[in-house]
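Reviewers asked in the last cycle whether our approach scales beyond single polypeptides. To address this, we selected a multi-component target totalling 765 residues and predicted its structure end to end. The input consisted of the following lines:
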Amino acid sequence: VPGIAEDAGWKDLAGLRFDAAMAAFNADSSGEALIGEALAILSCPPRTESRVDAADHLLSEAAKDPSVAAAAEYFRARILQTHRIQPDLEKARSAFDAVNRQFPQSIYGQMALVKWAMLTAGDSAHPVRDFDLMAVRGEALRDPDAVRDFHLFLADAAAHWGLPPETGLKHLRMALDSGTLRGPQLGTTLVRIGELSRELGRKEDALEAYGEFVRHFPRDERTFTIRQRMEDLR
Amino acid sequence: MSFQKLANAFGVMILAGAFLWSAGVVLSRSPVGRSEKVQIRFAHWNLESGLREAFDAVAQEYMRIHPNVEIMQVPVPGRVYQTWTQTGFAGGTIPDLLVLGRADDELLTNHFLPLSEEVSKPNPYNAGTPLEKVPWRDTFLDGLSKSFGVDSLLETYSIPIAAVTVRMYYNVPLWKQILGDTPPPKTFSEFLEICRRVQAFAKSHQDAIAPVSGSRFTGEMLLGRLFQSQTQKLALRIDRGDTLAFPKSPTASAFAPGFGTLDDPDIRDGYAIMREVGQFMQPGFLELDRDDAILRFGQGRALMIPTGVWDFGSIVEQSAFDIGVFEIPLPDSKDPVFGKNSLGPVSEAGAGLAVNFLLSSASRHPEVATDFLKFLTSQPGNAIFSSVSKWPPGIVGVEMPQETLAFDPRVEGATSGISVAPMMYGVGDLYRVQAQNLHLLFGSAGSVEQLLEGMRPEFDMAVRSDLERFVKTMDDSSRALDARIGAWEFLKRDGDPAAVARASGFWQAQNAQESRAVWIRSALAGKEVRP
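The resulting structure, written as structure tokens, was:
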């Protein structure tokens, strides 16, 4: 059962009250509190190697607690990827890979695969091979948020690497089917599904996606164009 | 007693007297802390005619409903606004509410409070109206879709109050004198013809009348739009993700390796149309600012002036003649010269509302400041604002003022094109490179070719540095989301739907930002190939 101190600390951290969060987490020595303290340190300026080292140390201690080990290892990989002044992307990629393999059921383990895919794609010399490799790894994802973000990224990869439109469309659909897309990205995903479906001659699919877009985003600057597309298809 | 001692005693008495007088003055004041009323201060830079009066009218009505609250308006000239706000942030003197034109994630999270929870609840001041049970967010014309922080932080930080569009104003008696009964133009060709007739009139009458009152600002209003009319199709061609909306910011993303280039015919045509119409502004207009252009128009030395509804009050006040307004006609597909690049008129739907208020995290009464914002953006409050300022309302169901009906946003239209950089209010190296060379386009012996050759040596470097800076900003922003993701992941364990949604939203925001950064870096590494 989480302690009262942790919940207060997380609320402070969510509200960006870092000093208060630090004080709340300091009152406890659980693994969860160590993660909270580490995140508070990483969020407070200035960003220095010694502070990042301190956060990493707290996370390595937290990783000894099995109930929060996935989160702790995930954020250690984030330190390698982005919090260090000089990130080590290759080490970060390996670390995310390890987090995913070690904690495949955890949200952190699943989101680690999203980060791993981004680092793999960013450094890819063999896009088609790497795309297939990523797609296979993604089949194990179950968390709806991870499914959404992973397949959106693969759809982007398909577009940027010039893969067939069917490939991009398949991953956009999987992202949409996760049911967790929200805000402007939901609108853009619907437009992309509509456009690719239209390009592939899948009239009904295009109309359905366009219709959803118009219903959800009646005041978007693309709505008039989309309505015209719908009229043309009918 | 010596003279010296007497002089010293006299000096001490003067000092003591001055101290007592000062203390009396200070103690007799009613400072913020001693007032029994809750004081809410808001600052803005919109000194245009009618706006301060409109804010006052809304504040008076609010104070009538809430006699225990005092609303104080702090208008600050635009030229010093940024410095003034930065000083306020540093010194802790920022008002409760602040109007900003833009704000990055760091500024938002460090100095302002999110209003996401508030905007999901109905606005109590809409009681008795058709919006009574509608969430506050959905009472805005754009559904707050362009509110600061929505895209990157999934939080609503800014509350806009008005819809603003740009139109062409004209001097009605001068129009009749020069053009007779010719109606306002409906097409770009008609607009050019009108400009040519005005030039011919000025020449034959040895008059210094310009068809269009020029300045760097009015240039951006008119020529910037015309440029984007020429890049509508290019924006779709480089839209690798089939989004129908190539990102407008930073403009450099359209010119990353593998995307658009300076030599795209559409870009050349964009500059060509700017030169074509720029010749109808008075020579040297690039060196003038907005006030110069309004003054020239008010003096009857220009027939037309392109600007936004925000200048309506000032222009009417400064002009001793009737004013007409028409929508700026962009080239359509039938235009013989510029039609080939055009997708037609541009939609103004969802373009975003203006005059964005943000709630300071240093506010001593954030709940009262938020309540005032609710009143300002309720149907009754926004109607007061709109009727006094003549600015189009930002709230669903509030009537447009009759005087400014011509500014009603166009809903039926295509998406706009891309630009290399704005002519004004831009930032970054691409903006600098274009700004330093624009004279090569508009000079009497200027040309598109000269402009492009002037920009070429620094263009690729400018694109690269702007994109590298942008990616770094995205890195900073996405890194900062780790704390929130961690927090909401732990807070959602009880199944609270709000916490679940927050965690989900922050993951989505972070991964979307990082994905975009991956592809920008990939393009900068030369890995993007234009289809």
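The CA atoms of residues 5 and 22 of chain A lie 10 Å apart. We regard this as preliminary and will revisit it once experimental data from Aim 1 are available.
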